[in-house]
Amino acid sequence: MVMMDEFGKLMTSPDGTLMGADGLPIIGPDGKRINDHCAPPSGPPVGPDGTVYGPDGKPLLGPDGKPLKAGLGPNGLPLTDANGQLLGPDGKPLKGPNGQPVRAGPCIGKDGVVRHPDGTVVKGMDGQPVKSMIGPDGKLMVGPDGSLLGPDGKPLVGPDGKPMAPANSIGPDGTMYGPDGSPLLGPDGKPLKCGMGPDGKPLLGPDGALLGPDGRPLVGPDGNLLGADGKPLTGPDGRPVAPGTTVGPDGTVYGPDGKPLLGPDGKPLKAALGPDGKPLRGPNGELVDEFGNPLTDAFGNPVKPGTSVGPDGTIYGPDGRALLGPDGKPLKCGLGPDGQPLIGPDGSLLGPDGKPLLGPDGKPLGPGNDRTHATGLGPDGKPLGPLGADGRPLPVEEGGDMQVMCVGPNGELIPVEIIENPDGSISIKSAPGMEGDYVADIIGPDGKKLASIPFHCEPQIDASKIKVGGDSVDGVVKKDRPTSFEVDTSDAGKGPYTASPYEPETVRNGGIPGIGDKNGPKSPGEEDTDVKVAVIGPNGEPVDCTVVDKGDGVFDVQYKPTKEGPHKVIVVANDDLVPGMPIPVDVFPNGDASKCKASGPGIEPKGLMAGKPGTFKVDAQRAGDGDIEVIVTSPNPKFDAGVKITKRGKGIFDCEYNPSLKGPYEVKVLFAGEEIPGSTFGVAVTPNPNAEKVIVSGKGLKKGYARKPNKFIVEPNGAEGALNFDVEGPSKCDINVEDNGDGTVTVTYTPQEAGEYTINVTLDGAQAPGGPFYPQIEEPQPSDPSKVKLAGNGIGNNVKTGVPSTIKIDASEAGPGELGINIKGPNGNKIPVKIKDNEDGTYDVTFTPEDVGNHNIDVKFDGQKVPGAPLTVPVKAGIDANKVKCDGDGLKNPKAKHDNAFTIDTSAAGPGDDIVVEIVPVDKNGNPIPGGKRVPVTIIDLGNGIKSCVFNPEHEGAYIVDLKFCGKNPKDFPKVISVSGPGAQGCKLPNINGIEVEPDQEINIPVDISGAGPGNFTVVCINNTTGEADTVRVIDGPNMMKNVTLKPTGAGPHTITMTFDDEDLPGGPYTIAVKKPVGADACSMKPSKDGKLFTADGDFLTFLIDLSTAGPGNLTGIAKTPSGKMVPIDVEVDKDTGLAHIKFKPTEKGIHLINLLFNGHPIPGCPFEMDINGPADVTMNGGKAKDGSGSICFDMEPRSLVVVPNMVNVKIIKGQNMMIPIDLTFSGDGEIEVTCIHDSTLEHVPAQIVDSPNGKQVQISPKQPGWYTVHLKFNGVNLPGSPYKFEVKEPTGADACVIKRGPKSPLKDGEDVTLIIDVSKAGEGQLLGTCKGPDSSNIPVKTKTLDNGDIEVSFKPRGDGDHTLNLEVQGL
After folding, report:
1. What average pLDDT does the chain have?
2. Dist. CA 1329–CA 1353, nearest whole Å
3. How far is CA 307 from CA 388, 394, 675, 763, in A?
């Protein structure tokens, strides 16, 4: 007879064998067990092609990462071994991803029918065969959860009504398999095996947990107990059950480590089991033996399943489930080296971090198996408390003849106070920390329990979990405006809670706990609520509050402050201050920040330089009551920009801050507590170029010691300005600055207390790079000079005179201290030393002995002598700097802007190789000029002890050459040299190399020789083809300018040679190319043999046109008379000479228009006007022998010629005069009239006619920029081309500079002369100045930019006589 369960289902063993009513397997006629083929197999399914599928519905992979395939037999079923494990096509066991064998599951044939591994068909709940869907590719169709799909696409349902999918299973030998057919592994990494009973069923404990072959509970890979189905055992809430104190099927009691608990006799404890197989319990829940006596552990304590610690530290409750902490995560305690839990001094469990563990209620968690009652007397006769996790009893409170022990709901001891009353009775006072049931045991002097008093504690509010926030504490609070803050008690306990404001009388009495020192009484009318709140004004007066319950434990506290100033918000719960109380709240005036305006350079995005104050103004005149607050955030969060605010009048605020650091700043401006429009302002502060040169170094910038000298070194490195040092910190520091004599200074500061200090090194208010510095000053530790070590060539036997020697001092293990060293020569003279602090506890001390003989070296550390000191070092003869020889033009005749060189021969001076040359400008007395620029020097080694020194001074004048060999000056050094002007190299001109010009084009080249010094300037232009010189004119201009005008004749290359004192100017000689004229452009007017351009031949007017270089073509001409008639011109060409003879017969008086064309193109200068009996304009090439172009007057007489310049694109600068020369050499006398009009205003501009060597000159003085029109008449008739145009432009560059304040007369020798120059309209560029004294020597000129943008120029006159100051703008 088959056994059925309570639901009428067949009872089977884990492998599917049917069970009889006797609980034994049913055996078939063949002697084999009969399987329930209606039960779905539990291994991984196998497809028609042998593919094995995992629990996710995807092919299962082997250890090699490839899909597993089972071998198929002739019947299409997968091959398996005797244990039901799958075999591959090669007959070998298949192994899953973890390398373990794979157990066979359902097999699906090509027809889709699902079969057991033995080939029997799996039937559904309807008794019909179960069919799976096969895809077009022959693969199984599975759902997203890995379940098999039927032909209808829905999950297949097995006989148990559940979708068919792989699950855990148990093999006949007890081996447990996962959904993928691989064995399940236990916490130790080994395959799990459950115990199998004689009936072939797995062994189960009373609680349904699987037992191992040893009868102990079986724990899965996740550390939880396993059920009969091989899945984690779950409790009533569906959560996995972890091992705690459990009872085996035979009653053996096991601890959380899986080992049997031992009784007082050292033997394993066994609990009595009831008819249902579950352990019997005593009245207090403790386990009992077969006689009903409570089981006690090795310490005599009753045992019942309770709080326990697993082998990995996980803490389990009485139900065997892991306890959760306040964060909802399982609790783990720390384990000691012996594997035992860590216990605090109060008996509470400690976590891995050594801190008390908190349970779900946030309270410390106590250990033990619910050992909650007194255990009797200890060896000293005193009562003992419950056991801790280590099994040792905890102490009990004593009072009089009574002892009391109070235990809370979590098994922890609660501190109690025993009070003896006057009537002889006692009172017990305790402070329970959590909700729940408590028990107080009263123990008599004999250690026996007199009574147990149970009591219940209601939930209390936890002040530490209350949150306070909202506008009143996070935002801006204004006077006379309602505001509020929120009190959230939702996490402070179960609640519900109540809240109310303190009575004003309580606030005035100082009755709020923890506030003030009055400790006054509360008001009799004080409402008793869980939460109390108060807002206190600046004078201590309470502010009326209203508390509104918003539900869910949240309260809204509303109030309206009536006074400005600091207020306090206070929240108290159960007479405990909420953390963070009191909260300061600033109440601001009722102003309107949106009506404020800020302006000024201090809030502009660009324009500020480090060290210059950032200033701006805030206009709050329309914003109402309120004050300005400015918050400046610098690139360094520690740096304070030092904001200053000055109120000027009603509502006007002047603000200033000091951005001494370069980089981005943020300026936040608030009015009445709120930001004004535009705030926050981003300001980019540019570096101060001078301050950027400063170098600050030394370990005193990083750390130091209190009451000890700490040092750092500052090197100005050529920076000009006011250098300042400042040290601030917890104590006042004495600062000492010592000049090291090498351009650096050592700054020593001595703080009196430890802490962080601030070191500011500024130049003109700007921080040096890297600053501010924040050294950490520590309390000094004892120093040990005995650990100082000396080494280096400076204490050896090879020290020589004149040769630098180094002593290496290692004090890295000697502690803090100051190094002192004193070296004396054989004559007792002190030898200078240079100490380099390597900032790692080591020092390099360099000295250069001067005399032969023994030197005494004394070294001290922290004022005490070091081992080996003092010591005597013999010095031998070595370096003799006086044997160094120097020679060369660089010392005899140096020039500015030239590479000057001289040789240094040290071959006879000794073995040294240390050459240092420094060249700086000096004044007339040979003293270095303050701020004078050091000349760069290059030392080139030529071999054999000879070196070359090359230098290139920027300006002429006196310089001092300081040469040192091995630290000593040779004879005659330092010496002063006189650097002459740069000559040609000081000249400036445009780049004309390679330019192309038109034939007969005039070239104008401006040459600035102001920087060349005195000398001779020459220009020559040569036609490279003919070797002939071209005409060159050099006209002196203002400010040492030379205007070079030349007109190269003849096509081809021309060479322009410009020299100054026979030296080519930079880039010269220069080559230009003259284009070869062709066609009409090659035609030109030629004078006749008698030198005349025009000849009267009877009634005809004749002239010549040269066509010799024009190439093939025809010359034609026509004339237009004053009446408009077109009159032909006779052209006759002489083929031998290429000259065309032009003949024209004028028949009318007045202006004729003459046009000559070569191959249809006008020749140069055509058409031109000819006025018969009046002025005429002829601008053809060769039209005038003097300069080749211009206007002529033709009156049928050769002398009737008037010449004026070509007035095309003429431009002058505002402030200059327009000069128009009129050449009357050939015209004879006549009346000249001139009129000038400003085109924009139509105003007449005065003009003057003055005499000139060749005639007259028109001088016009325009005052405004723009275009002007000039009318010129000769004898009442307009000259050809009149009216003329010229343009007046605004000055730029040097032309736009204005001297606002000149020097005061008379100038005095040696006293500063100052000029103020307005460069506001000069544009981009740099103003530079040079000055020459009466003896033509250069005098340094300083320039300084003032705050308003003007330039201050200053120099000191040198000697009596005229001084020449030249100012120019460079970089334009």
Report:
1. 77
2. 8
3. 12, 17, 58, 72
Sheet of 915-921: strands edge to edge?
Answer: 915-921, 957-965, 975-979
- Mapped onto helix, strand or coil, the DSSP state of residue 459 is coil
- Beta-strand relationship, 734-739 and 745-750: antiparallel
Q: d(Cα 108, Cα 286) in Å, to the nearest integer?
A: 54
Q: Pick the closest to residue 436 from 415, 413, 410 (CA basis).
A: 410
> Rounded CA gap, 1057 and 1070, in Å?
6
- 575 CA to centre of own chain: 48
Alpha-carbon distance of 852 to 862, in angstroms, equals 31
List the structure tokens of 672: 């009445």
Kindly report which listed range (2-6, 185-189, 1024-1028, 1072-1076) carries the lowest average pLDDT score: 2-6
Nearest to 1232 by CA among 1197, 1282, 1168, 1268: 1282
Q: Is 392 a residue whose pLDDT tops 60?
A: no
250: region left, alpha or beta (phi > 0 left; psi from -120 to 50 alpha): alpha
- pLDDT, tens digit, for every residue of 1023-1032? 998 888 888 9
DSSP sequence for 12-51 = B-TT-BBBBTTSSBPB-TTSSBPB-TTSPP-S--B-TTSB
Instruction: Look at residues 851, 850, 783, 854 and name the one whose alpha carbon lies nearest to residue 820.
Output: 783
Count of other CB atoms within 10 angstroms of residue 882:
16
Selection from 997, 1010, 1109 nearest residue 1046 by Cα: 997
Closest CA to 172 of 60, 50, 35: 35
First to last CA, the chain: 116
AA letter at 1006: P
The Cα 1037–Cα 1040 span in angstroms is: 6
C-beta separation of 983 from 1013 below 8 A: yes
CA–CA distances in Å: residue 1189 to residues 1001, 1062, 1235: 11, 34, 24
**Interior angle at CA 1277, CA 1274 and CA 1282, nearest 5:** 85
Q: Of 770, 685, 758, 759, nearest to 724 (Cα)?
A: 759
Structure tokens at 988: 């400036």
Q: CA Rg, the chain, in Å? A: 56
**Residue 850, pLDDT score:** 83
How high is the pLDDT of residue 467? 92
Both tokens assigned to 162 = 């559940």
Per DSSP, the three-state class of 937 is: strand
Q: How many CB atoms lie within 10 A of CB 1058?
A: 28
Q: pLDDT tens digits, residue range 677-686?
A: 998 999 999 9
Answer left, alpha or beta for residue 311, where phi above 0 means left and psi between -120 and 50 means alpha.
Answer: alpha
> For residue 10, what are the contacts with CB-CB under 8 A and spacing of at least 6?
2, 3, 4, 18, 19, 36, 38, 39
Q: Which two tokens stand for residue 1211?
A: 């431009």
Residue 759: the pLDDT is 93
- Could you give the CA distance from residue 1076 to residue 1109 in angstroms, rounded to a whole number? 9
The candidate with the shortest Cα–Cα distance to 377, out of 296, 442, 446, is: 446
- Count other Cβ atoms within 10 Å, centred on residue 990: 9
For 72-98, what is each residue's pLDDT tens digit?
A: 777 777 878 767 778 888 778 878 776
Closest CA to 303 of 369, 254, 390, 244: 369
Q: Cβ distance 1268 to 1238 under 8 Å?
A: yes
501 with 557: CB under 8 angstroms?
yes
In sequence order, the β-bridge partners of residue 120 are none
pTM, whole model, 2 decimals? Answer: 0.36
pLDDT above 70 for 1002: yes
Range with lowest mean pLDDT among 345-354, 431-440, 784-793: 345-354
Contact 146, 181 (CB under 8 A): no
**Residue 856 pLDDT:** 92
CB 532 within 8 A of CB 581: no
